[in-house]
Task: structure prediction
Amino acid sequence: LADDGYRLWLKYDQLPDARLRKAWQAQAKGITVENGASPTLQTAAHELQLGLQGLLGRPVSVGASGGKGRIRLQVAADPTLGKEGYKISEQNGGLVVTGPTDAAVLYGCFALLRHVQTGQMPPTAALTSQPRVQYRMLNHWDNPNGTVERGYAGSSIWKWLELPEVIDPRYKDYARANASIGINGIVVNNVNASARYLTPEYLRKVAAVADVMRPYGIRVYLSVMWAAPKLIGGLSTSDPLDPKVRQWWKARTDEIYKTIPDFGGFLVKANSEGEPGPQDYGRNHADGANMLAESLGQHDGIVMWRAFVYKANSKGDRFKEAYEEFKPLDGKFAPKVLVQVKNGPIDFQSREPFHPLFGAMPRTPLVLEVQLTQEYLGFATHLVYLGPLIKECLESDTYSQGKGSTVAKVIDGTLEKHSISGIAGVANIGSDRNWTGHPVGQANWYAFGRLAWDHTLKSDAVAEEWTKMTLTREPQAVNTIAQVLNQSRNIYVRYTTPLGLHHIMGQSIHYGPEPWLEKSARPDWTSVYYHKADSIGLGFDRTAKGSNALSLYSPQVRQLWGNPATCPPDYLLWFHHVPWGQRLSTGNTLWDELTTRYYSGADSVLWMQQQWEQVKPKVDPEQHTDIASRLRIQHREALWWRDACVLYFQTYAKRPIPPSLTPPT
Ligand code: GCW
Result:
């Protein structure tokens, strides 16, 4: 049977290595669930059974009985494991999966399966791991009518019209995939939110989804439409300081918890891109967020308030707006509020410097929001593995408390000693059979979960793990594919926006090149606003001579990036307007370096194609053809990007394309 990608990385085909199978068979004759059988523990046992039966090619029983060679699942207090950490160890000749909570044991079971699936022998030393970040969230931008904002994998997986009566079996498969990588929260609807989700009619539907998620340790959250009190509450205002508005939210929240007892909380986009918010009433973001936090009362829920805000402003620099609005509010948010900050200061571009709010709001827990759906990275046609992008952001040093004050340490709460922490990925999931449109989109979902759990994992190790679990176990092919994955993001940056160019993509659709865009509804939605090409040079001057956005960073960062000679080439045009003839650290002039990157980037897609051809005998033919076909689109469009951008910038630079790049035809 051809592989349609539906099983994601949860593929439990029999291990080809007989020695490995034998070793595991001796350890996995059955599964014993100790201390009771909550739905989550039952789920854990069932998942482990399902996986082992497939991998080992024989039945594995689940029961209460003991006996040699059985895997025991045990909930047991262990102060070294936090709330969700697990330990897989050997006791009296048998494997035990322990954790302080049911969910922890479930995570342990998936970790054990991963261990087997990636071809490792039974562990001789204990395997332990606990998540570094507490709220590991997927954000769906899904609408009530089944469309997905910036979704490229079909329509929404949530069938709102059929819920709550019809429970699509896919919901459970979705929950399994998430639990297997440690995701423990999902926001089911778009941040450009419909107020409908807060009505009793929709709450029943959301509750039905929550019922499916619960055994998998996943809580459900809602994006809220700020103007809901007016739109569905019959009030004349949505002013957060108005007592009637406060009462309305309190009553709504109580109603939600009656319907969904483990409801997770709210995500809010307010006063951004035309959405309503507290500023409509002269209030600020903290007034709004704190009002919602208060409405949660004693319920165990949180508010994630997005910092993605900017207004039409021809003179300012959009780069600075979130900082300017939020930094003064540090210390003003209620304890249940986290502020959710995008990577990065503009808008999910293929490479951005880290957001200056990281490290600048020490009294507020900050959530990092990354985008898995490839709005700015070639939709579902370009192969771009996002592990390196996520890691690059996490490892950026803010220097807020001296060297080593990385974004990772800001968001996991260790740097500023927060007791709550979060990370969010904008989902790339839809109703396509293979969930993500591009099969490699699955790797981005996977990598997000793994890095959310443990940001110290290496992105290439995660790529390798995913490849083994999803595409092939043949070592040489795994190597080749992992290499393609690891290079893919840099390649994409080179043929679209090298050297720190940004936001020069097609208007509103955000696909393909449109560097010439001069007119739009707003100046900060044009391309020329961002690249500032002229007869002298290229790039956005964000030094003190320009917008001075650099002043938002710590002195060490400012010093490094503020000088074009020390600024890494990858960020150069983010911060400097560089003369075309200026020599860069690479030895080339700006023009030559720019064109070289565009050309070599596009050529590298041919390299990706060649690598993919090599693994053909080792992967499923259907998946091979699918990816090979998408790579053909990618190459065609890499040439489109290259030619559009080089020819357009050439009208300013008035320099020839280096002859070495264009061999005579
Ligand atoms: O990048 C922009 C997208 C919008 C999106 C917005 C946001 C949900 O183009 O579609 O709206 O970001 O993150 O709020």
Observations:
- The chain has 19 helices and 16 strands.
- The two ends are 45 Å apart (CA to CA).
